[in-house]
Specification:
The chain is mostly helical. Helix content is about 70%, strand content about 0%. The protein has 2 domains: about 220 residues, MFS general substrate transporter like domains (Growth Hormone, Chain: A, Up-down Bundle), CATH 1.20.1250; about 180 residues, Growth Hormone, Chain: A. It contains 17 helices and 2 strands. Helix 5 runs antiparallel to helix 6, helix 15 runs antiparallel to helix 16 and helix 16 packs antiparallel against helix 17.
Length: about 425
């Protein structure tokens, strides 16, 4: 029987989190609390006199910039180091957010919105990679559950804070957004650079070429990315088709709001306790189980229209999110070859974003011609996603445990104050099995 230290509890993990990891977690929480731009951009621009189509295009520009930013962030973090990627990303996003309130010309708004989206997301591969490198292997899944808790708390409370700030001024809200980004950048300045230990450094003959083509040539990992894409297509139906289903079954829109709140409360309250047990599972089993439960939950919406069935279905796919996401978030950084961790993490986020983009259009189009077809189709897609995860995912190679620093923190064996990351063996959202963030 495995020793309890091989599967640390929530309390054990929190006690052993190193100072740099706490800086990352708190900095990201502060940043998410002030993440107003994407949520309120359309309202802000229409309030300033821009047309609704123009405001929609601006939001689209921000979205395109976000997708590009994740991929670019993966490359930059591998090449120049995680710390400076986070610093430049957050400081730049803060400055551009503050600049946006002074723009009155549409083309300038579009350009700045796209650039802000790019910079605002470029930090995510670097932050996830640092979590992996500064945390012992046995803590990876639990630390990513803590990371998701901070992310979800910020994402849940942020919009409410935004409403309060809007009552005073839209400009004030965006200035606060800018300040929270800069605060994260200042936190990141205190982070170490990450380096590869001598035994993990590849030789010139064995070192993989550092590009996204190398990631795509990893067939097993490509199957993992396929699973994430398919899962995202299914998961996003709770945003696109579920509200249509609720009203079509004769319920008030308030039921939909209750279901979303139920999901948020359960994830925030139960993900950490569940992860204590989920971390004992092989990575492929945890992810496949999570992806499968998301699909089963979506399929249960066929059994409506009783309110109880809507609640049960929501709880089932929420359970899938809780079970699969922490492991899927940690996995890319665990299996990445030296020097490619940032790209592996970014490559996992990309298919998810594509799934979130195409999923609503596919789901709504199918729902208009065959309402139950969306939920049955989700089951079929989920079966393929589960098989892809089981076939493609491999057991992560254990890395050297971070040694204790003189101050008692962990992670010192992997850091230095002077060198940039050169190939060490962490979004929205890292990878996620049905993650909303």
């Amino acid at each position: 029987m495995a020793n309890s230290t091989d599967h640390p509890s929530v309390v054990q993990t929190l006690r052993q989190i190193s100072r740099p990891v706490w800086l990352l977690l708190v900095g990201m929480l502060v940043n998410r609390l002030g993440n107003f731009l994407q949520i309120y951009l359309v309202l802000y621009l229409t309030q300033k006199g821009f047309s609704e189509p123009a405001a929609g295009i601006a939001l689209g520009a921000y979205g395109v910039g976000s997708v590009v930013g994740v991929l670019l962030g993966g490359t930059i973090s591998d090449r120049f180091g995680y710390r400076w990627t986070i610093v430049v990303s957050m400081a730049g996003a803060g400055l551009l957010t503050a600049l946006l309130v002074h723009l009155t010309v549409l083309w300038a708004v579009l350009a700045v919105a796209a650039a802000t989206g790019l910079l605002a997301q470029a930090y995510r591969p670097a932050s996830s990679a640092m979590l992996v490198e500064l945390t012992p292997d046995k803590h990876h899944v639990m630390v990513f559950a803590v990371y998701r808790l901070a992310f979800n708390l910020g994402t849940t409370a942020g919009p409410l804070l935004g409403v309060l700030l809007i009552s005073y001024s839209y400009d004030l809200m965006f200035y606060v957004d800018a300040i929270t980004s800069v605060v994260f950048a200042l936190f990141a300045l205190r982070l170490p650079h990450t380096v590869t230990s001598a035994k993990d450094e590849p030789t010139a003959d064995t070192a993989p070429r550092k590009s996204y083509l190398t990631v795509l040539s990893d067939r097993g990992y490509s199957l993992f990315m396929l699973a994430l894409f398919l899962n995202a297509v299914v998961y996003i139906q709770h945003v696109s088709v579920l509200p249509l289903q609720v009203t079509a079954d004769g319920h008030a829109p308030g039921l939909y709001a209750v279901l979303l709140s139920l999901n948020a409360v359960v994830v925030i309250a139960l993900e950490l306790p569940f992860t204590k047990f989920v971390q004992r599972l092989p990575a492929k089993i945890a992810v496949a189980l999570g992806v499968g439960l998301v699909g089963v939950g979506m399929n249960l919406y066929v059994a409506g229209p009783a309110i109880a069935m809507f609640v049960v279905a929501t709880l089932v796919w929420t359970l899938g999110e809780i079970i699969g996401t922490p492991t899927a978030s940690a996995y890319p950084g665990q299996v990445a070859p030296p020097g490619l961790r940032g790209r592996y993490i970014a490559a996992a986020a990309f298919p998810m974003q594509i799934g979130y983009a195409v999923g609503p259009a596919l789901g709504v189009a199918l729902w208009t011609v065959w309402k139950d077809g969306v939920w049955w189709g989700s089951s079929v897609i989920t079966v393929v996603a589960v098989v892809a995860a089981l076939v493609g995912m491999r057991r992560p190679t254990a890395s050297a445990e971070p040694e204790a620093a003189p101050d008692g923190s962990v992670g010192a064996a992997h850091v230095t104050s002077g060198e940039v990351a050169v190939g060490a063996p962490e979004s929205t959202s890292g990878a996620s099995a049905g993650a909303s963030g």
